[in-house]
Specification:
- The protein has 464 residues and is mostly helical.
- The protein contains 17 helices and five strands.
- It is 69% helix and 3% strand.
- The strands form two sheets. A three-stranded antiparallel sheet has the order 2-3-4. Strands 1-5 form a two-stranded parallel ribbon.
- About 9% of the residues have low confidence.
């Protein structure tokens, strides 16, 4: 049988040489079996001759001489070790294989039925090990519930923040990827830009949004940690809202009440609740450590409320190390900085993106190397939580919108971010799985190479 896998030129060359070697080994085995059979026959003839000689000696009344054998060592004789120059050059092996082996050779052609079963069992073991390392445990599943609740709260509260957007919702429906592609094909980039400008203008008119207004000066991440962790209020009965507004309030130095009204924490002056999200986005884009500080301050606040006595803010150097923040956060930060306009589409995309960043950070703060193993596998679990929580929130939003036909509630930004998360996180997990499989195979290869090296003398100090 021949595998249907596609092989490149080097693979085909190697497989043909291996097939030739397999034929050589089979011929060697046949020769060895024939010689073993001949030796067995000689042994039987020798034993028969001994019996006949013993019987004849008894008849003649004589005594046979005592058999004497050369001493045989108890330890196995080591095999002869070769010099490297005794090995044929690869080019000559390929030339011979091309002459002796015809047709297409696949991996399956080199394996016996038993070897195929052993290979399948090994692949299954590796996949099970990877699933165990990256699968969500009980703590992760509990965390997923919290993450999903925050994601659901995010899109449910958006209409309350931006108000009614009648004609803007109709224009947003035109911003689907298919429509945008059609516009670009028929009317070019100018039509695309014109439609986007129309949507932005409509939103700014209806929501009375001033994209240039900032409520206050940016706060440093040290101030965010110091002030945020000292508070212990929970204005909402919904824990997800407390988490969401707690993080935004930490960054902006504001306080939001249970009725969604917001004040400046320093002056007590009222500010627009929708505006603090824009302020938070700008602040995070200015300094990538402000969001981790706000999330950790909220984390510390919850731990204090639960009766934790240890100071959760020490050591800060470890908390905000590159290893703790991981590549996931830095890639999300790059996406956030790419959002130039905080119009309705930009804001709707920024909110779920920042929430995803916060969820990833919080799950990262819970990382314990002793229990969770290598960080890269823990990050895979974090990404799974993001995929599932985004998918559940998006599915819920689309179900409600389709049932009510109220397209103003369509979470366009959430759909965009959910699609990005699914594409990026599944690609990361697939790449990690491929890396893990290669590492496991490399271990087996190293063992085989050491075995091969044992047959040679005078090997170079670093042959590979």
């Amino acid at each position: 049988m021949t595998s249907e896998r596609q092989y490149d030129a080097d693979d085909r060359e190697t497989l043909r040489v291996l097939k030739m070697q397999q034929a050589d080994l089979e011929r060697l085995q046949q020769t060895s079996d024939a010689q073993r059979q001949q030796l067995s026959q000689l042994e039987e003839r020798l034993a028969d001759m001994k019996r006949r000689a013993k019987a004849l000696a008894q008849t003649e009344g004589t005594e046979l001489p005592t058999e004497r054998h050369l001493p045989v060592g108890t330890q196995p004789t080591p095999g002869k070790r070769m010099q490297l120059d005794e090995v044929s050059q690869w080019e000559s092996l390929v030339q011979r294989a091309n002459a002796e082996v015809g047709g297409v050779v696949g991996v399956d052609d080199l394996l016996t039925a038993n070897e195929v079963k052993m290979t399948e069992a090994e692949v299954s073991r590796i996949e099970n090990d990877f699933a165990r390392l990256t699968g969500l445990n009980a703590a992760d599943q509990l965390f997923l519930t919290t993450a999903t609740a925050i994601q659901l709260t995010r899109w449910m509260m958006m209409p309350r923040l931006v108000g009614a957007i009648g004609k803007t919702a109709r224009l947003l429906a035109l911003l689907s990827p298919a429509t945008m592609a059609l516009l670009e094909h028929q009317g070019g980039a100018n039509s695309n830009a014109a439609l986007t400008d129309q949507v932005n203008k409509a939103f700014q008119e209806e929501a009375e949004w001033d994209e240039g207004v900032t409520n206050q000066a940016s706060r440093s991440w040290e101030d965010i940690l110091q002030d945020g962790s000292s508070l212990n209020d929970k204005p909402f009965s919904n824990d997800a809202l407390n988490w969401l507004f707690g993080i935004i309030n930490n960054i902006t130095g504001t306080r939001t009440s249970g009725d969604f009204s917001t004040i400046d924490a320093a002056t007590g002056e009222a500010v627009k609740t929708a505006g603090i999200f824009a302020d938070a986005f700008r602040s995070i884009k200015e300094d990538w450590l402000r969001l981790p500080a706000a999330v950790y301050a909220q984390f510390a606040r919850d731990r204090a409320a639960a009766g934790e006595t240890s100071d959760p803010l020490e050591p800060l150097a470890e908390t905000f190390s590159p290893e703790m923040l991981s590549d996931l956060y830095t890639s999300q930060f790059a996406q956030l900085t790419a959002i130039q306009e905080l119009t309705i589409v930009g804001q709707q995309a920024a909110v779920p993106l920042v929430i995803n960043m916060a969820v990833g950070l919080l799950h990262g703060f819970l990382y314990n190397p002793a229990k969770d193993g290598p960080r890269e596998f823990y990050d895979a679990r974090t990404r799974k939580i993001l995929i599932y929580s985004n998918a559940l929130a998006t599915a819920s939003n689309m179900t409600i919108v389709a049932a009510s036909q109220n397209w103003a509630k369509l979470d366009v930004g959430g759909l965009i971010v959910s699609g990005l998360r699914i594409a990026q996180d599944t690609a990361y997990i697939a790449s990690l799985k491929n890396k893990f499989i290669n590492q496991q195979m490399d271990k087996a290869l190293e063992q085989e190479l050491r075995h091969i090296d044992s047959h040679f003398v005078n090997l170079p100090a670093n042959p590979r």
